């Protein structure tokens, strides 16, 4: 049981409405309709009451449409994507409301919400969805900056929030790009104590020069990263504690889909206390780069 002054939830790359090759609409809808229950059950099993909850929405919440050829054949319509995502967050807000009356939401747009190369940079389905979500719920406080990144104070710590699509990969591996950008941004747009990002669909916890980096996973297995990088996606989302002594006091990965993983439901669970890193549960080899 993880009880803290504040709970951090990283939610990104859920890609509501994305279909696998040859998957029917009904099958995809069934998966996304069950996602809230799956997520909330697993979250509820590890957290206790928290005074404050910080929900970091780091983009690619909707699958979007038209950002790569053939995408229209592999996605539900935008209105269905929006309905499924609204239902997910409605259930999540209801659940979080039973835990805390101080819920803060930090929305950042992803690359999948882009509408087209001739549209304004701000024209993005994630942005539209976040506004929709904010209007539908009066209880959580939305901190929407309509920017590609958000540098903000969370529980007296500086956090940098970003989707991550502007970070280059080297040899199809994101680690080096993330580390160098993170170190550069500390001095160019920082300083910050923690960096949260998504985009790469790979779960990883890093700690460089005293700064924590939580790289978030996705919701659902597909073969995109297998073909592109040879790596299975991490179908898991970070949750973590934020305390007075550290911006990241513990972490837990909430696994959302197990069917393609060799080792079911271990996820990656690590405990970080101060600068001491202890491995709590063995890591899933599919979830990590070497
Ligand atoms: Mn994504």
Name the structural class. Answer: alpha/beta
**Which architecture does the CATH hierarchy give at level 2?**
4-Layer Sandwich
Remind me, CATH topology? Purple Acid Phosphatase, chain A, domain 2
Quaternary arrangement of the chains shown? single chain
Q: Write the element-wise H/E pattern from the N-terminal end onward.
A: EHEHEHEEEHEEEHEEEE
How many DSSP-defined strands?
A: 13
Describe the structure in your own words.
With 290 residues, this protein is an alpha/beta fold. The chain has helices spanning 25-46, 78-97, 125-136, 175-188, 224-229; strands at residues 6-11, 52-57, 103-107, 141-142, 149-154, 157-162, 194-197, 204-208, 211-215, 236-242, 250-255, 270-273, 276-279. The chain has one domain: Metallo-dependent phosphatases (Purple Acid Phosphatase, chain A, domain 2, 4-Layer Sandwich). The strands form 3 sheets. The chain has a 6-stranded mixed beta sheet. Bound molecules: manganese (II) ion. Manganese (II) ion (MN) is lined by residues 13, 15, 60, 110, 112, 199, 201.
Q: What secondary-structure arrangement, pairings included, does this model have?
A:
Layout: E1 6-11, H1 25-46, E2 52-57, H2 78-97, E3 103-107, H3 125-136, E4 141-142, E5 149-154, E6 157-162, H4 175-188, E7 194-197, E8 204-208, E9 211-215, H5 224-229, E10 236-242, E11 250-255, E12 270-273, E13 276-279
Parallel strand pairs: 1-2, 2-3, 3-4, 6-7, 7-9
Antiparallel strand pairs: 1-10, 5-6, 8-9, 10-11, 12-13
Helix pairs in contact: 1-2, 2-3
This protein binds manganese (II) ion.
The site of manganese (II) ion (MN) has 7 residues, from loops.
């Amino acid at each position: 049981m993880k009880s803290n002054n504040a709970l951090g939830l990283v939610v990104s790359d859920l890609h509501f409405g994305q279909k696998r090759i040859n998957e029917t609409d009904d099958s995809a809808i069934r998966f996304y309709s069950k996602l809230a229950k799956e997520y909330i059950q697993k979250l509820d099993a590890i957290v206790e009451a928290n005074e404050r909850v910080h929900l970091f929405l780091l983009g690619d919440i909707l699958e979007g449409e038209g950002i790569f050829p053939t995408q229209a054949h592999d996605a539900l319509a935008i209105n269905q994507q929006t309905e499924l995502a609204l239902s997910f967050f409605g259930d999540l807000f209801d659940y979080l409301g039973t835990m805390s009356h101080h819920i803060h939401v930090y929305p950042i747009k992803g690359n999948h919400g882009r509408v087209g190369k001739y549209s304004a940079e701000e024209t993005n389905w994630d942005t539209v969805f976040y506004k929709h979500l904010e209007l539908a719920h009066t209880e959580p406080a939305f901190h929407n900056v309509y920017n590609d990144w958000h540098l903000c104070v969370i529980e007296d710590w500086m956090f940098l929030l970003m989707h991550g699509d502007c970070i280059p990969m080297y040899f199809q591996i994101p680690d080096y790009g993330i580390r160098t950008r993170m170190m550069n941004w500390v001095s160019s747009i920082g300083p910050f104590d923690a960096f949260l990002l998504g985009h790469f669909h790979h779960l990883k916890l890093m700690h460089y020069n005293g700064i924590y980096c939580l790289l978030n996973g996705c919701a659902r297995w597909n073969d995109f990263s297998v073909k592109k990088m040879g790596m299975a996606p991490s179908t898991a989302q970070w949750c973590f504690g934020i305390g007075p002594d550290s911006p990241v006091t513990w972490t837990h990965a909430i696994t959302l889909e197990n069917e393609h993983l060799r080792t079911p439901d271990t996820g990656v669970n690590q405990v970080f206390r101060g600068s001491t890193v202890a491995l709590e549960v063995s890591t899933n080899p599919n979830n990590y780069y070497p």
